[in-house]
Design a protein that fits this description.
By secondary structure, the protein is mainly α. It has four helices and no strands. GO terms for molecular function: exodeoxyribonuclease VII activity.
C-alpha cells in the first residue's frame, strides 16, 4: 500500500471528528433553549426514529449524540429545579 494511501483514512476520520465536534456544539446550543417537556418530547422522537429498521448508521450516530445531550439537559433542568425547591424557606409559604 502506498504511503499516501495509509494517511487518507486517518485524515478522513480526523475530519469526521472535527465535524462531529461542530455538530455537537450546534446541538447543544439548540437543545439549551428547550424546556424540560420539549426535551422529553425530542427524546421520544429519537427513540421512535432509532426503532425504524431503515435508519442509516449516520442517523444512529446523530441520534445517539442528540439523545445524550438531551438527557444531560433534562438532568441539569431537574437538578436546577431541585436546588430551587431546597432553597424555598417554609416560612415564606405561610400555609397555616
Amino acid at each position: 500500500m502506498p504511503l499516501e494511501d495509509q494517511f487518507i483514512p486517518n485524515h478522513l476520520s480526523m475530519s469526521n471528528k472535527v465535524t462531529n465536534k461542530k455538530n455537537i456544539e450546534i446541538f447543544k446550543q439548540d437543545i439549551n433553549s428547550l424546556s424540560y417537556e420539549e426535551s422529553i418530547s425530542a427524546l421520544d422522537a429519537i427513540l421512535n426514529n432509532v426503532q425504524d429498521e431503515n435508519i442509516s448508521l449516520d442517523e444512529i450516530q446523530i441520534n445517539y449524540i442528540k439523545g445524550h445531550i438531551l438527557l444531560k439537559h433534562c438532568e441539569d433542568l431537574l437538578q436546577f429545579c431541585e436546588q430551587e425547591i431546597n432553597e424555598i424557606n417554609p416560612d415564606f409559604l405561610d400555609i397555616d
